[in-house]
Amino acid sequence: MKVLGIESSCDETGIAVYDTESGQIWQRLYSQIEKHREYGGVVPELASRDHVVKAAPMLVDILGEIGGTAALDAVAYTRGPGLIGALMVGANLARGLAFALDLPLLGVHHMEGHLLAPMLAGDSPQLPFVALLVSGGHTMLVEVRELGSYRILGESLDDAVGEAFDKTAKLLGLPYPGGPELAALADSVGHSRFEFPRPMTNRPGLDFSFSGLKTAALTIVRKNEPLDDELRAAIAHAFQEAVVATLRIKCMRALEETGYRSLVIAGGVGANRRLRSELQQYLQAAGARLYFPALEYCTDNGAMIAYAGALRLLQGQTDEGVSDVKARWSLESLPPIRRSTAEGVN
Ligand code: KG4
Ligand code: ZN
Asked: Is residue 344 over pLDDT 60?
């Protein structure tokens, strides 16, 4: 089954086709970062307009590569959560195409796309597992007993971790979105004279809070202005260490509490090398295994939507009766995916 996946929930237009028989992926990805940079964040109206301009030509391009519309068997798109206007562009394109070609259509949960992204490389985590989803809009620990059945163990009570990276990067004068730049700066030094708090780690529970780190960064920046490159790197390093330690402590706690031996890390911040290596080291010592997507499938992309959609479409789940997109959408409300379907997919 060749499934088209359309992702347009925020500032990336992702169009991909995933073949469930061969595991082959064709994809195009366009990032609007340059459009939003001068505003220091994503401007929803500009995002929608740019998706309108870019999505259709990217779709035509990819259809040319796979042998035209006749090669498609189904269409999946991101139904939410995300920016309403941006989501509507992808949803309408998907609906129009599915209607014209008489193909099954399914709206996919963006975070399920992220969560299943490690499986795109054929590296399927052993069920049951815990997933750490870390992106610009979400930070959550999810218990996955069966694919499609999700229980949120903990989440951020304020800023998402990607948001904390981006806001702290802005304080350091780095261009938007500063997460990857801050990480590169942090990795350029081996230690720091600064120390950030590890929020909510000294009390029980699996929730997170990252807004305090941003305030801590602001206090250090104010005290040490004007910043030179060395100071900037020292602050970035201390910030990243605090985030990584906080996420690691909560991940280990979640594994301990559930008794599970597998951890999936996904979402944009999952691309962070320091976080990956820290988790790798601690999980190995605990006899557990870490799964993560290829770097290109960590941040928003169409392939993860095509894949998550394919698992559900294969067992007949479609958008029958669905007509809205969702700015907010609980991961826990999704119907399960039967395991036999997931196992039949490459
Ligand atoms: O999953 P994603 O592409 O989009 C959302 O669904 O939000 O995540 C984007 C977020 C941004 O906040 C970005 O700064 C952050 O992921 N990010 C990183 C790294 N790469 C992307 N944060 C820290 N280190 C990185 N290497
Ligand atoms: Zn995302």
From this structure: no
